[in-house]
Input
Amino acid sequence: MLYQSLFNFLITFSFLYLFVSGFSLIYNVSGVLHFPHSSVLVISSYIFYSFLPHLGLYIAALLCLIIGVLLGLLTESLIYSNLRQRNSSDVHILLSSLGVLIVFQSVLSIIFGDDTKLLNYTFADSFSVLSANITPSQTLLVLAAFLVWGGLLLVRRTTLGKAMSAVSIDPQLALTCGINKDRVILIAFAFGSAIAAVGGIFNAQIYGMAPTDGLEILLNGIVAMVVAGSHHPTSLLLGSALLAALYEATALSLGSQWQEPVSFAVLVVLLLSGRLGSLNSK
Amino acid sequence: MSYLLHILIIGTLFFLLAASLNLISGYAGILSIAHAAFYGVGAYTAALIAPYTGGAFSVELVLCLGCGVILGVLVSLPALQMEGDELVVATFAFQVCCTSILRNWTEVTNGPSGIAGIPPLQIADWPISSRPALGVVVLLTTGILIAALHYVASSPFGRTLKAIREDERLSVALGKNVARFKIITFALGGGLAAVAGMLYAHYATFIDPSSFTVETSILIISIVIIGGAGRLSGALLGTLLLVAIPELFRFIDIEYRVVANIRRLMYGLLLVGFLLLRPEGLVKGYRYRERESL
Output
């Protein structure tokens, strides 16, 4: 029981990290709370679910990545970028992101229906470690989360990573230093959306999917970002771990249905205690 | 005829919801995406107390209004210390949390199955069981509340809210108690939304959590923004565009589930389209503070 709970914690934590690392990257660089990021994850799950039987594992996964990145890029270049050029208010940009979330969610509901879909697919048999039952997809999810963490740490050391930090800290100064702000923002959207698509592939295999799933993932991701207190990949990793531990404790003591109220309580406590770190108006 | 009456009642309730959110988001400039939570609390309060009150209008009105006001005050207290993205995230989290409680606290709310058989409203021992009579009650109640809201919005109170929206520091410098104004605004907005919920519960006679989700909150804020924030006429036009006209989709011979999703898709597209092409809304409402150009 203890080992199974520990492994469940690892799964929740890894999934949460895959979502929050991309969401936080986009928010940090562009200043936009990209609500449809959760839809990109869910759409990727549906694409994987639909194309896996016809195209096989690798091509279906590649298709998820391509469509996920395209969705992120299109949202930025057609909507947010346009609104920024018109000097729209932050409130309007935020509202447009809510609008896009609704559009994505409705399209999914129209095409696939509102019920939860489960993917009956395993590419290898599950195995037991210390009496915990583990599937290969779950193992890969944990591995993917740590790979993304390592990758993001590496990117921070490159010229691109430094340009992202510059745009995040002072976009105007970055512009005067010759950094192409719009291009850097687009790259952040591409990276972030690709990570969400990876999360979507595992979501399809481990949890199953429904069009409205995105809202809960979004809330948990935002709380993990606030708990992390900064946009540094390691802080986000620790934030996700803390929140996942809290979720597992809640599920064991009160029942999994109380995870969202606990999320909300954590968020309010953190916001009220002034620990806004990663969530302040730009 | 019966269907037109249904559209009129639902449209009137959404007008009340949009007008009450307009006070918070349009006049005071505080973006909130938790209005469906107040609406839901009003509906569930009415459904839960109805067996004890027998649907007595005045008792239910006072209790639902009271619940909405108390919840509005509770939400406004943390909101006082937040602004921008923090506030939006906090209201979003509050909304998701409320929906989750409605769905999961099965002992009280009956979970996703909802509460059925809500008795009709009663005014002076006269049950309002027919749809036309209930339509009149909804129209009259909403009319009185909207008139009161209009009076408040055009009074010095409403003008102070606009001043706070434009420049909070200057309002403080002029001696205005900004916190008190914001608390009262949330209390009024929450209370009126709860009354809309109460009327909806007695009209529909069945409620479940799916009517009070984040999507409903986004629909209400879309009505305010598309109509024109800070203008009562904007809330009316927004309601006509987003609630009444999409009802006509029902006459197309396709599955109800698809129709509901097409309507949702339509208001998502309209919201994005308006923000890109006409951010001030149909009646030239408040545009919110613009970003500094880079």
Q: What stands out?
A: Chain A has a mean pLDDT of 86.
